[in-house]
Amino acid sequence: MSRIRSTLNTNTPEFRQNTLANLARRDAFRLRQQTARDARPTRDVERLRKQGKMLPRERLEKLLDPGTPFLELSSLAAGLDYDGEAPGASCITGIGMISGREVIIHADDSSIKGGAWYPLTVKKIVRCLDIAIENRLPVVHLCDSAGGFLPLQSELFPDKHMAGRIFRNQAMLSKLNVKQLSLVFGHCTAGGAYIPALSDYAVIVRGTGAVFLGGPPLVKAATGEIVTVDELGGCDMHTQVSGTCDYPANSELHAVALGREVVAQWERPQKWAIQQTASEPPYYAPEELYGIIPDDIKRGFDMREVIARVVDGSRFHEYQPAYGTTLVCGYANLWGYKIGILANNGVLFNDSALKGAHFIELCNQNATPLVFLQNITGYMVGKEYEARGITKDGAKMIMAQACSRVPKFTVMCHGSFGAGNYGMCGRAYDARLLLAWPNHQIGVMGGEQAARTLAEVKTRQLERDGKALDRGVVEKVYQDTLGAYQEQLSAYYATSKLWDDGIIDPLDTRNALGIAISAALNAPLENPGYGIFRF
Fold this sequence. Notes:
By secondary structure, the chain is of the alpha/beta class. Helices cover about 40% and strands about 15% of the residues. It has helices at about 15-40, 40-50, 55-65, 120-135, 165-175, 195, 215-225, 230-235, 235-240, 250-265, 290, 305, 350-365, 385-390, 390-400, 420-425, 445-465, 470-490, 490-495, 510-520; strands at about 70-75, 90-100, 100-110, 140-145, 180-190, 200-205, 210, 245-250, 315-320, 325-335, 335-345, 370-375, 410-415, 435, 440-445.
């Protein structure tokens, strides 16, 4: 496999301008992330300290194997929702190592309104368990929640992908023989009580841990019975009487130690065989990614330069390099794992769509995981391309990608617009992990295109109605649309809504993908199979 020959000139004004802009984006991202993780009112921190509780991230630090990486997911979820009252969607999720085993962790953040679940909290937990199912990852739940946020109960309870989906996913994990452990540090109330009840193992802390469908106030209101928290659902009752929990813990540190012992008893899964070589770092400096990504979403760049700063040794075997040149396809190794890469170098034409479809089939035939590097304005539009069958050829690529049996991973490197998002494995297409860079933008089309389209529609409407063309009205439509789009296109808007699995620093791309690929090998490969390709 030959090394990519980089043509990047790091001494140009453009490179320096891009670097400054992307470093500023990185710093802004890090500040947002640090605030979401750590900024809490003093009264909330003091409340937890008085209860003898650790902060959620302190629990994580004690639980995870020292010196091992933790890939946190969706750290800025709900960041632009609920008036900023639920940073991180009031919970922490991520992939890490406990007692030498790969696990995924869901931890309630009791420093935010007692760990109450908002609608996006539920969505984030469901996504965490989806990842566990897809990758056969054991789950460790760190339970400490006041239950559903009642003012928004209509968005929490009734529909398919609301709270009940959490417990459905837990049942599916058990059906698949995937282990689950609950560490009950605080209250598990109402539906939240089912998390430890549906886990294989449950540890509960004496004095602070409790599990019940209805707390003392609800029991009194419903039945008139007066009962204490410990009598109703405390540690001794559940470990000595009901059997709902397995292990009593005298403190949070004791609970963590018991949890690590439990995980140490689990067998290690047999991963499926993937082509693998010794890992080596990229030949080119990853820090140069900051100078490669343009400051302007409309400006292109050569995705090979990105690949060269992510994969092992910057080596890349490019498939059909002279055909369908707006889509770069080829093989590389990342942390030693063989991967197939599809990366955008412009709009998708007929030939690039066909090339992508065929390359995806080859990777499925070869049991090679797929990595999609998105910077896509969509499939080409216009009379000529429709006559050539661009919709039909784009559908082939979508069919091949959607029906892939190998694990898929997506990185939103720049723009993601229109149906190109679909062909390049957007959120709807079950990537095992979908990550975004801070400069990323996503929408059905770019802001200026949407504004011009609606302005043109308004112009035609006025003409059709026989009214005088009012340039002021048309300009207002343009500006209003552009303003709304600029807000909704941003990476922070998308990640707040959980349209991705988190924003990352571009320099962390290699490590994040390495963790994700390793986790994906726990789930067996499906048998190959496709739907109908329209020829």
